[in-house]
Design a protein that fits this description.
With about 80 residues, the chain is mainly α. The protein has three helices and no strands. The two termini are about 20 Å apart.
Length: about 80
Amino acid sequence: MLLVKIFFGDLGDREAILGHISRRREEAEALRKQIRAFQRDAERGGDHDLYPWLTRRHALAWAQFTVRWAAEAEEAIRASRGS
């Protein structure tokens, strides 16, 4: 739903859209911290199973991308002279 709101952003409230993006960034930051903690715990416990590791890598990559994308989107919206 977030991307639909952004796609039609010209029809909506700029601050509301920024709020949605900010919340998504915060959620991704929290997920990133959680996944890193899971990874540290797994490494300390000697867990080197491939499939859980691949799952953690995917979640971490998604979270990192989302944090970067949200920061870029927030900056672009704030810099725009639109509504």
